[in-house]
Amino acid sequence: MHFVLTLHSHLPYLLNHGRWPHGTDWLCEATLDTYLPLLRMFLDLEGEAVPAPVTLGITPVLANQLAHPSFAAEMELFFEQRLEACREAPSSLAATGDQHLLPLVAFWEDRFLSLRRLFREAEGDLVSAFRRLEEAGRIEIVASAATHGFLPLLGREESVLLQLLVGAREHRRLFGKAPLGCWVPECAYRPSGEWNPLPGVSRPAYRPGVETHLAMAGFRYFFLDTHMARAGESLGAYGDVPHGAERFDAQWEGRPSLRHAEARRSPYQAFWVADDPSGPEVAAFVREPRSSMQVWSRHHGYPGDEWYLEFHKIRWPGGLKFWRVTGPEVDLGAKAPYDPDRARERVREHASHFAWLLGTLPQEERVARDGVGMAPFDTELFGHWWFEGVDFLAEVFRRIRGQAEVLPLRASDSLEASPPRQVIRPLEGSWGANGDFSMWLNPDTRWTWERLWPLEDRFWKLAPGARAEPALRPLLAQAARELLLAQSSDWQFMISTGAVPDYAERRFSLHCDDLALLLDALDPQAPAGRREEAWTRLPSLESRDDLFPEILEALDRVVEGVRRR
Predict the structure, then answer these.
(1) Residue 186 catalytic?
(2) What is the CATH number of domain 2-68+122-299+354-435?
(3) At residue 365, does pLDDT exceed 50?
(4) Where in the chain is the domain with CATH 3.20.110.10?
(5) Which of 206, 232, 297, 497 could form a disulfide with 226 if both were Cys (CB 3.0 to 4.6 A apart)?
(6) What is the average pLDDT score of the chain?
(7) 446-564: in CATH 2.60.40.420
């Protein structure tokens, strides 16, 4: 069986939007906890000659931030903050009678210094570091929509295509080659048909399936959750999973079931996705349910083990973590001290179990030798939410090396070795709670779509004329950036989970307000004062939201394509 481990790396645009708690510190924390440990894992396994052919998704909005000149400086400041916390910890622990935690201060200091050395050896350029791994054939990097927009709910086909074209173009600019695969944001798929998600607000229209736009943007494959291919029940990424991660703590209202469906397809294969035989075909990988739940589930998965680092208990001042999970029902105040050595033992035990599980799947599930087990995860689960997660991945690859029943492959290599044999029309859905769109469209988020859809209409009404005027193209480029940023699925997600709704509402409204101002500058019928204000503010907006330098080239292609149709 082919084992296609797929990691999806994404954060919204955070540079130039504050530092703590939801600005650049968020980006730096993910880098310290996940991206740098993952890079170190790849380099260590390369030195051991252990293949780790991960399919690594890095969204264009995240890659732009990691490649931005200001990021390296922010990261150096963040390292210094972490190290200063280690320097101050002994006196703070002594004052509270917690000297028994002092060995953990040394543990954290050693870790921070080691990762800072790695960051400096990479010259602060993680994009280039991962690019070199792909060029060496070690991993495959896949793209996504530009700002992780929730494609099925965007109001215009032009918006869907712009998200994907900008995503593909930015990937090529930063990673040196056109992407073959696309992580469709939230695994959200919409087949062709009538589109009217909010009757009375949205404009009814016949819309093509998402695969049509993927093909137009040059992508060859994408990823589906199990239920969308009629291959099993929805697993979700935000319901029963994983232990202790607020990002995934949304409650289920009930899972779609296929128990009474006419037939289930095997999830252990890739499929062609096309609405009709004459339409474009794009391959789709389907989530393998058993291995995925072994990691995702907060009740049955590995991350909830008592010996692993407790995510939620943090010591202030300083922000260091000194405690372990201890038990699922143990109050934060009763958590026991973390034991790194015992945690490493559990990593090895869990990796051995996971490797054994992968080896049994072909026999138990009657998977052909060229069958595919695709296990998708948010990259940030490993290292950030589950501190030992990156070490777990490394141990898994060490243990499946040479295992006859399991062949780890990059996604494109698996497709080449085992091309799809069947064309399907997937169900509408996502990997969110309930397997549908309700995480992003519900009573709490309805207002965001009511605000966004008219702005989309106005943007695409003005764009064709504005692009023909050289003097207006800088305004048009920034308007397109603000449109893409307003479309980020993160805003509705954060509102729905209730984690930081005020921040999400503020960021969404900010980009919508700035988009409206820039559109006034492009509209000859708008008041002159608004046009002057837009020109005055343009330099500050270009400096604040400084990403996607080739956005106009993608926009031109969208407009020309619409004209040809």
Answers:
(1) yes
(2) 3.20.110.10
(3) yes
(4) 2-68+122-299+354-435
(5) 232
(6) 91
(7) no
